[in-house]
Amino acid sequence: MTNRRVPLPPKTPRRAAGLLVGLALGAAVLAGCGSSEGVSTDCGLDGCMVTFDRETNAEASILGVQAKLIGSQDDQVTVEVAGEQLTLTAGQPATEVGGLSVTLDSVSADQVAIRLTQGSGG
Predict the structure, then answer these.
(1) Of 61, 65, 92, residue with least CA distance to 76
(2) What is the pTM of this model?
(3) pLDDT for 27 beyond 90
(4) Secondary structure of residue 18 in the 3-state scheme
(5) Other Cβ atoms closer than 10 A to 106
(6) Are 96 and 86 in contact (CB under 8 A)?
(7) Element (H or E) spanning 85, and its range?
(8) pLDDT tens-digit map of 53-89
């Protein structure tokens, strides 16, 4: 019996890079979104949207960090992300904390929605 090795096609750097990018994005999504009552999360390849019921102090684990609604008044909210308190206003540019960009997406009478993205993607 003869053992023959069949040569594999060479891998191109572009193909390998594409595979690594795909795995990284998949890992970011699978990094998990866990939440308590009064909060919902919607994570995609570009980040996570976290929607808090306005009258609760709910929290969620997003992209490896904790996010918690501390309070809200009019169009301004205070959240704690990665252990740091942030005061966000609707329309304000993203605030960087813990390797994430955090923006206030919307405020209504019932809910507050913030967006968290990796790096400066907000």
Answers:
(1) 92
(2) 0.68
(3) no
(4) helix
(5) 13
(6) no
(7) strand 84-89
(8) 987 778 898 878 899 999 988 889 999 999 999 999 9
What pLDDT, on a 0 to 100 scale, did the predictor assign at position 92?
92
Q: Which residue has the tokens 């909060």?
A: 39
Decide: 51 and 38 in contact? Cβ < 8 Å.
no
* Residues ≥6 apart with Cβ < 8 Å to 17: none
Do 76 and 111 meet the contact criterion of CB atoms below 8 Å apart? Answer: no
Q: Which two tokens stand for residue 116?
A: 């968290």
Task: Indicate whether 97 pLDDT > 80.
Answer: yes
Q: How many helices (H) and strands (E) does the chain have?
A: 1, 10
| Whole-angstrom distance, CA of residue 31 vs CA of residue 95 | 21
Lowest mean pLDDT among 54-58, 81-85, 101-105, 112-116: 54-58
Question: How is the beta sheet containing 76-81 ordered, strand by strand?
Answer: 33-35, 59-62, 65-73, 76-81, 84-89
Nearest by Cα to 49 from 39, 58, 57: 39
Bridge partners for 29 per DSSP: none
